[in-house]
Amino acid sequence: MAKGKKVVFVIVEGLSDSEALENLINKHFSKNTVYVKVMHCDITTEKGINSQNILKKVTEVVKTYALSNHFSRSHFQQVIHILDTDGAYIPDENIVFDSKCSSPKYYDEKILTKNIDGIKRRNQIKSGCLDVLSRTSLIWSSIKYQAYYMSCNLDHVLYNKRNLTDEDKEKLSSAFANKYKNDLEGFKKFICNNDSIFKQNLTYRESWDFIRNGCNSLKRFSNFGKCFLEQLDD
């Protein structure tokens, strides 16, 4: 790592998430060194994870990277965690049985599933984890941490599509990355100025309160724009 630079550690769920956003995050935080950690899972719903240990788990992810690179806490500028909401905060009555759904299907006002109790349990655990992460401002004692949501997921926010196959995710992430490859300002305009997605009048805390209301965690909202507006790399 170049002298004077610090690590901006970014946590995402999947490879397609990284492909869509890594170049843009690199450009925005060009004064520092960006590392994108792909979890290959939703950390908030992994087996054994709950609101009591989610912060410890995320801290372990950062520590493991630091140890493998001989870094200490002082080498980090911040941790950015990008999370899908997946309808975690919706009322139970908006989880609807459909015997044809081999996996959950997401819509503005409902989740279709053949395992209602399973989605209820998942939502209870996931919302608890999101609550903890959204209220965390420091990780590993001193590193600035902020969690940003994509609702109902990253595909929905970036491409306005839900219930995609992995192949479709890969195609769309590649197209998105190419579209904004040399247009960071265009991406900022998209993610920060589109008021139907990003509510500029809300503070970071208020944006999390907003997504907890009703079925908002199924609709197309994100607070990720705040990552670019706050100029945390200064």
Structure characterization notes:
The chain is of the alpha/beta class. Helix content is about 40%, strand content about 20%. It contains 8 helices and 9 strands. It has helices at about 15-30, 55-70, 115-135, 155-160, 165-180, 185-195, 205-210, 225-230; strands at about 5-10, 35-40, 75-85, 95, 105, 110-115, 140, 145-150, 220. The strands form 2 sheets. Strands 1, 2, 3, 7, 8 and 9 form a 6-stranded mixed sheet that branches. A hairpin with a 3-residue loop joins strand 7 (about 140) and strand 8 (about 145-150). Helix 1 runs parallel beside helix 5. The longest helix is centred in the middle third of the chain and has 19 residues, at about 115-135. The protein starts with 6 loop residues before the first strand and ends in a 5-residue tail after the last helix.
Distance from N terminus to C terminus (CA atoms, Å) equals 18 Å
Shape: globular
Taking the sheet with the most strands, its summary is: 6 strands, mixed
Secondary-structure element pattern, one letter each: EHEHEEEEHEEHHHHEH
Number of helices: 8
- Kindly report the oligomeric state of this protein: single chain
Helix content bin: 25-40%
Low confidence ranges: none
**Average pLDDT across residues?**
95
